[in-house]
Amino acid sequence: MWKMRSFVQSNILFRQSLRLLSSSSTSAAGASIRPQVVPDGSPSSTANEPSTSAAEPSQSRFQKPKQIYKGSIDNAETAKFAAIADTWWDHYGPYKPLHAMNPTRLSFVRSALCRHFRKDEDTPKPLEGLKVVDVGCGGGLVCEPLARMGAQVLGVDAVEKNIKVASAHAIKDPITSSIQYRCTTAEQLVVEKQEFDVVLALEVIEHVADPIEFCKSLAALVKNDGMVIISTLNRSIASYGLAIIGAEYILGWLPRGTHDWNKFMTPEELALLMNRASLSMDEMAGIVFNPFTQRWYLSDDTSVDYIASSVKRR
Q1: Is residue 90 pLDDT above 80, yes or no?
Q2: Structural domain range at position 130
Q3: Is 136 assigned to a binding site?
Q4: 286-300 per-position pLDDT tens digit
Q5: In the prediction, which pLDDT does 306 show?
Q6: By CB distance 3.0 to 4.6 Å, which of 151, 166, 215, 275 could disulfide with 127?
Q7: pLDDT at residue 66 in the model
Q8: Is 268 among the annotated ligand-binding positions?
Q9: Residue 4 lies in a domain
């Protein structure tokens, strides 16, 4: 069993994390640009129809297309995922590790949400009544189980191909057909003043251009006393050896170049980011792979993968 990790860090550790975060933010600032505006994939009248990204030719030339704020989106990163979007539901394809890891991530999510919102974890639909957004939802690997647990789910992704794949898969099941999908960004949802009980960003923050602004957007989307859950990779020697050398180059679980080790984030840095965004860290657990059983499990070991929940302060 994993235990709740304490986030009362020493002053030395806090200052070290602050210096690390500040230096990385400074180096990224030179290459960053102000938020771009591109045509929006706005929600259709039918919840499960994939949204379009531009106005139809038949529309009046005087009608302005809806706009979407890209914010922290990294175009190079989204291009990687667009190239393999058709393989999201291939259990033996590039997303095989996520399929294998998914039950473990979901067990943390389910437990954290039920405890925080005082839900009965043993009921068939423990998340009933909760409004959830999955930011960077990909092909819907997390959205579908959440819908089966009773949550009202919106999945958003900056890659239009991902949304099309997610929508096509969701309509195969009457339960998951209730999921709404949009090709948009967290920043755009903030502009629209949308709010949710729960905001998820699983294996996403290591792919964005500006983690600080991304965390602020997640915090802006969650209601007071709501919960934000983030999972990512630690920037450690172990993660470089296992997540990049092992997973991408030796085992071939992921396409080479999927991850940039320099964009990984230590637990202390993530805690600092959350604090800056008015989020109080609640609990954290490592996600560890056992090569002998070929299974993932929750652990106190956060040296490679980890997941953390936080609560928005009033």
Answers
A1: yes
A2: 13-19+36-56+64-312
A3: yes
A4: 999 888 888 999 999
A5: 98
A6: 151
A7: 52
A8: no
A9: no
Tokens representing 216 are: 């602020």
In a domain, 228, yes or no: yes
pTM for the complete prediction? 0.76
Residue 64 has pLDDT above 50, yes or no: no
Strand partners, 53: none
pLDDT greater than 90 at residue 255: no
Token output for 134: 């999955």
Q: Name the nearest CA neighbour of 281 among 249, 256, 252, 308.
A: 308
Long-range contact set of residues 3-11: C-beta below 8 Å, sequence gap at least 24:
3/300, 4/283, 4/284, 5/267, 5/283, 5/284, 5/285, 5/300, 5/302, 7/271, 7/281, 7/284, 9/268, 9/271
CB atoms within 10 A of CB 160: 18
Q: Are 230 and 88 in contact (CB under 8 A)?
A: no
Indicate the number of domains in the chain.
1
Q: Which residues contact 99 (CB under 8 A, 6 or more apart)?
A: 91, 141
Instruction: Report DSSP letters for 133-158, one per residue.
Output: EEET-TTTTTHHHHHHTT-EEEEEES
13 annotated binding-site participant: no
CA–CA distances in Å: residue 282 to residues 55, 102, 116, 117: 43, 21, 9, 13
Q: Flag whether 2 is in a domain.
A: no
Q: CA distances (Å), 215 to each of 9, 91, 140, 185, 204, in order?
A: 20, 30, 21, 13, 11
105 annotated as a binding-site residue: yes
Mean pLDDT score, 264-285: 95
Are 136 and 154 in contact by the 8 Å Cβ rule? The answer is: no
Q: Is 19 annotated as a binding residue?
A: no
CATH number assigned to the domain comprising residue 137: 3.40.50.150
Strands (DSSP E) found in the chain: 37-39, 67-69, 131-135, 152-157, 180-183, 196-202, 222-233, 279-290, 295-299, 305-312
3 is a domain residue: no
Residue 203 known to bind ligand:
yes
On whether the CB atoms of residues 269 and 21 are closer than 8 A, the answer is yes
301 is in an annotated binding site: no
